[in-house]
Amino acid sequence: MDLTPTPQEQEFRDQLRAWLADNHPGPEPEGDVAGFEFRRAWQRRLHDDDWAGVSWPKEYGGRGATLVEQAIYNEELARAQAPSTANVLGLAMGGPTVIAHGSEEQKRRYLEPILSADEIWCQGFSEPEAGSDLASLKTRAVRDGDEWVVTGQKVWTTLAHHAKWCMLVARTDRDAPRHKGLTYFLMDMDQDAVQVRPLRQITGEAEFNELFIEEARIPHENIVGGEGNGWNVAITTLMHERATLAFGLQIRVKITLGELLAEARESGAAEDPIIRDRLAQLYIESEVLRLNALRGLSSIMRTGVPGPEGSLGKWQWADVNQALTELAVDLRGPRAVLDDDRWTYRYLRARANSIEGGTTEILKNIVAERVLGLPRMR
Amino acid sequence: MRFELTDDQQAIQRAAKEFLASRYPAEEVRRLALEDDRGFTDEQWRAVAELGWPALVVPEDDGGLGLGVVELAVLQEQLGYALAPTPLLSTVSAALVITAAGDDAQRTEWLPGLAEGERRGTIAQLPPAGGLEGGDAADGALTATLEAVPDAADADLMVVPTGHARLAVVDMSAAGVTIEPVDGLDPTRRLSTVTLDGAPSTTLAAPDAVALAHARDVIAVAVAAESVGVAQRAMEMAVEHARDRKQFGRPIGVFQAVSHPCAQMLLEVEGARSAVMFAAWALDDSPDEAPLAAAMAKAYASDAGRRVPAAALQVLGGIGFTWEHDLHFWLKRGRANAAVWGDARSHRARVADLLEL
After folding, report:
1. Residue B347 in domain
2. Given A173, A257, A317, B158, which is the most exposed site by the fewest CB atoms within 10 A?
3. CB contact under 8 A, A373 and B278
4. In a domain, B2, yes or no
5. What is the pTM for the complete model shown?
6. What is the value of ipTM here, to two decimals?
């Protein structure tokens, strides 16, 4: 047990902190288009100094950072209240998937524009009839010479309206067992056969979309990880989503909780013994989330695979963030009926936490079956 | 940054696990809990002493091994997992407090004997029911009724808080000391009512508020670590049952109404383990973080230690409610641990204070 940073880790932190102090672009402007362009400019600035893909190999524009350094990176960006990047899914999922499963040619072609945000990525996994049961998806791809012809529908496609590339999982073999007949494609979004329709959320925003795909064409060379291997490749993407995003998210929770504690101190709400108890419990849970994440990193660094803590993180994060925003709204008292407050937004947005990126129920199944070794449901 | 045990710490963990598994199978835990007059045997105590466990956190200058709280937590988790009935934690607790508040002569008098296991100690934790007399004078004759003193019947000395960060040591064989064993919730940790009637005492001469607070936090984290082991074992019993037990033609673990509570157990066990290991490390190496870390660990592990066995009982169904099944021993220890050295609510209140809420 030694939770003090090594000299290299400390140097990494100091260097990044200094860079952030010099380069922070200030608060994000209002509005979808202005906000997106602002995030794109911010990502370019990060990339110019090699801060966009810290965990990626140096030869592809990354820094080859260790897992602990990645954790420090996420921590420092959150602490500095740095804006989000424009190409969130490309950085967190698409790039790591290409690095893990792509050919050398694909790595040379796709990685650099992800880092520079010149090409935005989206993820075409879920369908109207294939949510938690992803392997039942129906979008079909049929070979036609050097191309595949794709028809189907995708949903919850974040960033599709900005995206150049879609990580698309489609069924290429209808006779194979359902997990085996899937293939992972990179689909060019710039074609008339792909129609994007925004979906409004309960917050009023439209972060995500529906995709209608009618005989879209994908060159054969855009398959990642081989024909029929789409399930394995998709799982890599999802594991990266849960592991990498979860680490950054737990830090955002701590910052949000810090705001809530400050407000509760100032308003005197923290003197109420029940509120006090709930605030303390939230603080403890947010710390447990952080400590589990750190423990998970050490275990991955030793064994190369995520330990049980990793599978729990996303589930626990959703629980904590929902409880936190719930308490924040409680603290408004009767003023909670007004929709004039950032807590109202956060409360509503947090409802999705236990659904997006794997529902809590599916995560519990994973923990029960793969960590505890309980018999499989199916 | 490495949030995992070192090779040496893993060796302690492995050795403890193997020793406890061979010496304290569930039948032996049951026998000691229900049939043995003292709840442990001299032979068992000698074996524990030979392993150096009572000496673990006693400083080397005082005849101990001078190891850290992380090592103690590692050991305590295994003791909770095996649920080995032993007066070890009581002896360690007395030694920790004497280390924090005794002067050189007092440390030399008591600590080597406690470290070697030649003497056993305990500490009174509940405030005396009808107040305490004689605590104002140094080495005063004490009069008090002390309830629920753990492992008192076989202790050679007892530490008694006498008010305002003052502590005294009482020789249990002295005149004026009466020890009355009482039934407790947890039969694997024996309790007594100790009556002092003008009993001679020795005031610990060098009380240091910071050192004492540290010692109390170490004891609280040691109890919390034990609860992690308790919860881990209860979870394993539930999971094993959910795999084996068939209803409606299938193992009940396929039903999410059963498997999801099992997953919740893992969430709580792993969370408690992280909180305890962090607190143990902070008590050793990061004093500024230690009070908050210890309060968080005891709060979270208290809840896990009582909730996980209760959830496990629900998974086991009727069999888990029977005297014959072993689960109830772990349930009772988890429940009892949640109540001592500060319950979850009082530690959350401490967390709130430390956050300046």
Report:
1. yes
2. A173
3. no
4. no
5. 0.94
6. 0.96
Q: Is B348 on the interface with A (CB under 8 A)?
A: yes
CA B232-B238-B239 angle, 5° bins: 85
A120-152 pLDDT tens trace: 999 999 999 998 888 999 999 999 999 999 999
- Give chain A's mean pLDDT: 91
pLDDT of A378 reads 67
Which of A12, A265, A275, A288 best probes binding to B when mutated, by most B CB atoms within 10 angstroms? A288
Averaged pLDDT for residues B44-66: 97
Contact A291 B250 (CB under 8 A): no
Distance from CA of B343 to the nearest CA of A (A): 13
Helices of type H across chain A: 7-23, 32-48, 67-79, 88-89, 95-101, 104-115, 230-240, 246-267, 273-303, 308-331, 342-350, 360-366
Residue B302 lies in a domain: yes
Last residue of a domain, one of B147, B181, B203: B203
Q: pLDDT at position A251, please?
A: 80
Question: Which of B203, B236, B251 delimits the end of a domain?
Answer: B203
- Cβ of A261 within 8 Å of Cβ of B239? The answer is no
The pLDDT tens digits of the residues spanning B130-183 come to 889 998 888 999 999 999 999 999 999 999 999 877 999 999 999 999 999 999
What's the mean pLDDT in B309-334? 98
C-alpha distance from B205 to closest chain A C-alpha (Å): 34
Tell me whether B271 touches chain A (CB under 8 Å): yes
Measure CA B184 to chain center.
15
When pLDDT is cut at 50, 70 and 90, the band that residue A235 belongs to is confident
Q: Considering only CB atoms, which chain B residues are within 8 Å of A323? A: none
CB atoms within 10 A of CB A340: 7
Boundaries of every domain in chain A: 7-115, 121-228, 232-371
Q: Is A147 a catalytic residue?
A: no
Task: Say if B261 is an interface residue toward chain A (CB within 8 Å).
Answer: no
Which of 1.10.540.10, 1.10.10.10, 2.60.40.420, 1.20.1050.10 would CATH assign to domain A7-115?
1.10.540.10
Write out chain A residues lying below 8 Å of B280, CB-based. 1
B277 → chain A, closest CA residue? A1
Percentage of residues of chain B with pLDDT beyond 90 = 94
Q: Per CATH, which fold does A232-371 belong to?
A: Butyryl-CoA Dehydrogenase, subunit A; domain 3 (1.20.140)
B351 contact A CB<8A? yes
Residue B246, both tokens: 């068939």
> Is B271 in Cβ contact with A316 (below 8 Å)?
yes
More confident residue, A295 or B197: B197
Domain annotation covers residue B162: yes
Please count the other Cβ atoms lying within 10 Å of the Cβ belonging to residue A334. Answer: 6
Q: How far apart are CA B308 and CA B235, in angstroms?
A: 7
Q: What mean pLDDT is reported for chain B?
A: 97
Count: domains in chain B: 3
Are residue B286 and residue B269 in the same domain, yes or no?
A: yes
Using alpha carbons, select from A313, A115, A75 the residue that is nearest to residue B274.
A313
Among residues A69, A76, A241, A309, the one annotated as catalytic is A241
Inter-chain residue contact B4 with A279, CB threshold 8 Å: no
Same domain, B30 and B129: no
CB A164 within 8 A of CB A119: yes
The parent domain of residue B214 ranges over 209-354
Class of domain A121-228: mainly beta
| Closest approach of B43 to chain A, Cα-based (Å) | 33
Domain identity same for B241 and B313: yes
Do B310 and B278 fall into the same domain? Answer: yes
Q: For A375, which DSSP code?
A: P
**Do B260 and B286 reside in the same domain of the chain?**
yes
